[in-house]
What we know:
Elements: H1 9-26, H2 33-44, E1 49-52, H3 59-68, E2 70-71, E3 74-78, H4 85-89, E4 90-95, E5 100-105, E6 112-116, H5 123-126, H6 130-135, E7 137-140, E8 143-146, E9 152-157, H7 170-173, E10 178-180, H8 187-197, E11 210-211, H9 212-223, H10 229-244, E12 248-250, H11 254-270, H12 278-289, E13 294-295, H13 297-301, H14 306-316
Helix pairs in contact: 1-2, 9-11, 10-11, 10-12, 11-12, 12-14
Amino acid sequence: MSVPIAVGADLDTLNRVTGRVRENIERVIEGKPDVVSTALMVLLAEGHLLIEDVPGVGKTMLSKALARSIDCTVRRIQFTPDLLPSDVTGVSIFNQDTREFEFRPGGVFANIVVGDEINRASPKTQSALLECMEERQVTVDTTTYQLESPFMVVATQNPIEMEGTYALPEAQRDRFMARVSVGYPVEAAELAMLTSHTSASPLDDLEPVTDAAEIRKLIGIVAQVHVSEPVQRYAVALATATRSSRELNLGASPRATLHLVRAAKAVAAMSGRDYVLPDDVHRLAVPVLSHRLLTNVEAAMSGRTSRDVLNSILDSVRVPDSGRA
């Protein structure tokens, strides 16, 4: 049987708060409920989100709408070729009056950090995010500074334009819990956008509907969701299959398996359950794992993407019957 820890009022509270945040974001991002749900899932699972799509589809608008829906500290970093690592993490400045060094926090010292066009910064600057994304801390001049919870990086990048960009290294991509594409809106949503977005930006009227303290409580509820041994074995089996695939040069890391299970716990809680179903893991495998995989030359030449290979793996690995045990 499942272990009913996060039940009743806790899950009702979670669904009530996430419902308010969802409605707030959908006032700005119309016709993309799956994308909004993924962003909320990553927030509750203490992950980071990579939004990858062509220009003008609302990547930055989505990240800003999420940030404005929560009454917490928010910083935006515009990644450019001349951005320095110290602009991201912070720097120690010598104070002439006190004759001591003072630390000036960088852009990552916030609850939600919006990294716009992350692949336009140099690899050296991109690497400044590695420690804070994984360990929730920043080390500058041998001193370590802890980041407040919740902490989430929402980064955007354009996968089409290659001039003046630097591809994210594997270590960076592996720290993003999920990757989503906003995509073009359907006709009805685009028509509604013309009505609501032409006179003024809908972001101007967006008010917070929750705060950092409440989000911390929801994260605690998600952490208590039960994951049975069959579901754990299924997640490991998927990761193992990517590592042994003849079409991939790089499979899913143990961090990826952990992210997959954490994301499934968040989805289960958002669905009103205190346990994870195998279908939760199956449904999240593509957004959580595909951006971490690298196809080999043969697969790439035959037109197979990492998503295609992963879908084949999902078809070949047996799904357990239930997640309640």
